[in-house]
Amino acid sequence: MKRLGILLSGRGSNLAAIAESIAQGRLRAEIAVVIGNRASAPGLEIARSLNLRAVAMPSQGIDREEYDARLAGELQASHVDLVCLAGYMRLLSGGFIRAFPQRILNIHPSLLPAFPGLDAQRQAFDHGVKIAGCTVHFVDERLDAGPIVRQASIEVQGHDTRETLASRILDQEHRIYSEAIQFVLDGNFEMDGRRVVCKSL
Protein backbone atom coordinates (compact mmCIF):
# COMPACT_ATOMS: atom_id res chain seq x y z
CA MET A 1 0.00 0.00 0.00
CA LYS A 2 1.38 3.41 -1.00
CA ARG A 3 1.95 5.81 1.86
CA LEU A 4 0.99 9.50 1.92
CA GLY A 5 2.44 12.30 3.99
CA ILE A 6 0.00 15.20 4.40
CA LEU A 7 1.26 18.72 5.21
CA LEU A 8 -1.20 21.33 6.42
CA SER A 9 -1.48 24.66 8.19
CA GLY A 10 -5.21 25.11 8.68
CA ARG A 11 -8.63 23.51 8.81
CA GLY A 12 -7.80 20.23 7.07
CA SER A 13 -10.82 19.89 4.77
CA ASN A 14 -8.73 18.37 1.98
CA LEU A 15 -7.18 15.96 4.49
CA ALA A 16 -10.69 14.87 5.50
CA ALA A 17 -11.67 14.41 1.85
CA ILE A 18 -8.56 12.30 1.15
CA ALA A 19 -9.24 10.15 4.21
CA GLU A 20 -12.85 9.67 3.07
CA SER A 21 -11.71 8.64 -0.41
CA ILE A 22 -9.43 6.03 1.17
CA ALA A 23 -12.20 4.75 3.46
CA GLN A 24 -14.58 4.42 0.51
CA GLY A 25 -12.02 2.62 -1.66
CA ARG A 26 -11.71 5.35 -4.28
CA LEU A 27 -8.07 5.96 -3.33
CA ARG A 28 -5.77 2.99 -2.82
CA ALA A 29 -3.33 4.42 -0.30
CA GLU A 30 -2.84 5.00 3.40
CA ILE A 31 -2.03 8.18 5.28
CA ALA A 32 1.27 7.53 7.05
CA VAL A 33 1.58 10.89 8.80
CA VAL A 34 -0.09 14.29 8.99
CA ILE A 35 2.24 17.17 9.84
CA GLY A 36 1.08 20.67 10.75
CA ASN A 37 3.40 23.65 10.91
CA ARG A 38 0.97 25.32 13.33
CA ALA A 39 0.29 23.45 16.56
CA SER A 40 -3.23 24.91 16.67
CA ALA A 41 -4.15 23.82 13.14
CA PRO A 42 -7.64 22.27 13.21
CA GLY A 43 -6.45 19.75 10.62
CA LEU A 44 -4.30 18.08 13.26
CA GLU A 45 -7.40 17.50 15.39
CA ILE A 46 -9.15 15.98 12.37
CA ALA A 47 -6.17 13.65 11.92
CA ARG A 48 -6.28 12.60 15.56
CA SER A 49 -10.04 12.00 15.36
CA LEU A 50 -9.36 9.64 12.45
CA ASN A 51 -6.66 7.82 14.45
CA LEU A 52 -3.96 9.04 12.09
CA ARG A 53 -0.44 9.88 13.20
CA ALA A 54 -0.51 13.65 13.72
CA VAL A 55 2.68 15.61 14.30
CA ALA A 56 2.82 19.28 15.26
CA MET A 57 6.04 20.88 14.01
CA PRO A 58 5.76 24.64 14.61
CA SER A 59 7.74 26.55 12.00
CA GLN A 60 7.62 30.08 13.40
CA GLY A 61 11.04 31.55 14.01
CA ILE A 62 12.95 28.65 12.44
CA ASP A 63 15.20 29.08 9.40
CA ARG A 64 13.47 27.69 6.31
CA GLU A 65 16.28 25.32 5.32
CA GLU A 66 16.63 24.02 8.86
CA TYR A 67 12.89 23.52 9.25
CA ASP A 68 12.51 21.82 5.89
CA ALA A 69 15.38 19.46 6.70
CA ARG A 70 13.54 18.41 9.86
CA LEU A 71 10.32 18.09 7.90
CA ALA A 72 11.94 15.93 5.23
CA GLY A 73 13.45 13.74 7.95
CA GLU A 74 10.04 13.18 9.55
CA LEU A 75 8.50 12.23 6.20
CA GLN A 76 11.37 9.93 5.30
CA ALA A 77 11.16 8.24 8.69
CA SER A 78 7.49 7.58 7.92
CA HIS A 79 8.48 6.04 4.54
CA VAL A 80 6.08 8.16 2.51
CA ASP A 81 5.74 7.60 -1.22
CA LEU A 82 4.02 10.91 -1.95
CA VAL A 83 3.85 14.25 -0.13
CA CYS A 84 0.49 16.03 -0.40
CA LEU A 85 0.11 19.69 0.55
CA ALA A 86 -3.37 20.31 1.93
CA GLY A 87 -3.57 23.98 2.78
CA TYR A 88 0.12 24.16 3.69
CA MET A 89 0.89 27.87 3.89
CA ARG A 90 4.66 27.84 3.54
CA LEU A 91 6.95 27.95 0.54
CA LEU A 92 9.10 24.83 0.42
CA SER A 93 12.85 25.17 0.04
CA GLY A 94 14.74 23.84 -2.95
CA GLY A 95 16.44 21.27 -0.75
CA PHE A 96 13.10 19.84 0.35
CA ILE A 97 11.76 19.69 -3.20
CA ARG A 98 14.90 17.94 -4.43
CA ALA A 99 14.49 15.34 -1.66
CA PHE A 100 11.11 14.31 -3.14
CA PRO A 101 11.44 14.68 -6.95
CA GLN A 102 8.02 14.48 -8.65
CA ARG A 103 6.67 13.25 -5.34
CA ILE A 104 5.04 16.45 -4.03
CA LEU A 105 1.51 17.49 -5.00
CA ASN A 106 -0.38 20.67 -4.20
CA ILE A 107 -4.01 21.71 -4.66
CA HIS A 108 -4.57 25.35 -5.60
CA PRO A 109 -7.97 27.10 -5.80
CA SER A 110 -7.61 28.58 -9.28
CA LEU A 111 -7.11 27.44 -12.83
CA LEU A 112 -3.36 27.86 -12.92
CA PRO A 113 -1.40 29.59 -14.29
CA ALA A 114 -4.06 32.21 -13.51
CA PHE A 115 -4.11 33.66 -10.00
CA PRO A 116 -1.20 32.00 -8.21
CA GLY A 117 -0.40 32.77 -4.58
CA LEU A 118 -2.72 33.72 -1.75
CA ASP A 119 -6.46 34.48 -1.97
CA ALA A 120 -6.82 32.97 -5.43
CA GLN A 121 -10.62 32.80 -5.20
CA ARG A 122 -10.80 36.49 -4.28
CA GLN A 123 -8.40 37.34 -7.12
CA ALA A 124 -10.59 35.45 -9.60
CA PHE A 125 -13.83 36.96 -8.29
CA ASP A 126 -12.49 40.51 -8.26
CA HIS A 127 -11.08 40.04 -11.76
CA GLY A 128 -14.53 39.13 -13.00
CA VAL A 129 -13.69 35.76 -14.54
CA LYS A 130 -16.58 33.74 -15.97
CA ILE A 131 -14.88 30.37 -15.36
CA ALA A 132 -13.06 29.56 -12.11
CA GLY A 133 -11.79 26.31 -10.63
CA CYS A 134 -8.88 24.49 -9.05
CA THR A 135 -5.65 22.77 -10.02
CA VAL A 136 -3.59 19.87 -8.71
CA HIS A 137 0.03 20.26 -9.70
CA PHE A 138 3.47 18.93 -8.97
CA VAL A 139 5.46 21.26 -6.74
CA ASP A 140 8.68 22.71 -8.08
CA GLU A 141 10.82 25.61 -6.90
CA ARG A 142 8.52 28.28 -8.34
CA LEU A 143 5.29 29.42 -6.69
CA ASP A 144 2.27 27.47 -7.99
CA ALA A 145 4.06 26.83 -11.27
CA GLY A 146 4.75 23.08 -11.38
CA PRO A 147 3.35 20.74 -14.06
CA ILE A 148 -0.42 20.40 -13.94
CA VAL A 149 -1.90 16.99 -13.10
CA ARG A 150 -5.65 17.71 -12.87
CA GLN A 151 -7.98 20.68 -13.15
CA ALA A 152 -11.69 21.24 -12.57
CA SER A 153 -13.69 24.25 -13.72
CA ILE A 154 -16.94 25.83 -12.60
CA GLU A 155 -19.00 28.60 -14.12
CA VAL A 156 -19.16 31.77 -12.03
CA GLN A 157 -22.82 32.60 -11.42
CA GLY A 158 -24.22 36.11 -11.31
CA HIS A 159 -25.35 35.63 -7.71
CA ASP A 160 -21.97 34.33 -6.54
CA THR A 161 -20.10 36.12 -3.80
CA ARG A 162 -16.46 35.60 -2.93
CA GLU A 163 -17.60 33.20 -0.22
CA THR A 164 -19.97 31.11 -2.35
CA LEU A 165 -17.42 30.91 -5.15
CA ALA A 166 -14.73 29.73 -2.72
CA SER A 167 -17.12 27.11 -1.34
CA ARG A 168 -18.00 25.74 -4.77
CA ILE A 169 -14.33 25.62 -5.75
CA LEU A 170 -13.58 23.73 -2.52
CA ASP A 171 -16.15 21.07 -3.47
CA GLN A 172 -14.18 20.48 -6.66
CA GLU A 173 -10.88 20.40 -4.77
CA HIS A 174 -12.21 17.58 -2.60
CA ARG A 175 -13.14 15.62 -5.72
CA ILE A 176 -10.09 16.00 -7.92
CA TYR A 177 -7.30 15.82 -5.32
CA SER A 178 -7.90 12.15 -4.60
CA GLU A 179 -8.21 11.46 -8.33
CA ALA A 180 -4.87 13.16 -8.96
CA ILE A 181 -3.17 11.34 -6.08
CA GLN A 182 -4.31 7.96 -7.43
CA PHE A 183 -3.18 8.93 -10.94
CA VAL A 184 0.31 9.81 -9.70
CA LEU A 185 0.58 6.74 -7.48
CA ASP A 186 -0.38 4.53 -10.43
CA GLY A 187 2.58 5.96 -12.32
CA ASN A 188 0.95 5.62 -15.72
CA PHE A 189 2.20 8.97 -16.98
CA GLU A 190 5.26 10.59 -18.49
CA MET A 191 6.53 14.13 -18.68
CA ASP A 192 6.57 15.86 -22.07
CA GLY A 193 8.23 19.15 -21.23
CA ARG A 194 5.80 20.71 -18.75
CA ARG A 195 2.93 18.44 -19.78
CA VAL A 196 1.87 15.45 -17.68
CA VAL A 197 0.76 12.90 -20.29
CA CYS A 198 -1.00 9.55 -19.78
CA LYS A 199 1.04 6.67 -21.18
CA SER A 200 -0.57 4.66 -23.94
CA LEU A 201 -2.26 1.49 -22.75
The percentage helix is 25-40%
- Which whole number gives the mean pLDDT? 96
Question: How many β strands by DSSP?
Answer: 9
Described by its quaternary structure, the protein is single chain
CATH homologous superfamily annotation of the largest domain: Formyl transferase, N-terminal domain
Instruction: State the distance separating the first and last CA atoms.
Output: 23 Å
H/E series = EHEHEHEHEHEEHEE
Strand content: 25-35%
CATH topology of the largest domain, anyone? Rossmann fold
Specify the CATH architecture of the largest domain.
3-Layer(aba) Sandwich
The computed structural class is alpha/beta
Order of adjacent strands in the largest pleated sheet: 3-2-1-4-5-6-7
CATH class of the largest domain: Alpha Beta
Spans of at least 5 consecutive residues whose pLDDT stays below 50 are none
Sheet of most strands = 7 strands, mixed
**Outline, from the CA principal axes?**
globular
C-alpha Rg (nearest Å): 16 Å
Helices, by number, come to 6
Number of domains: 2
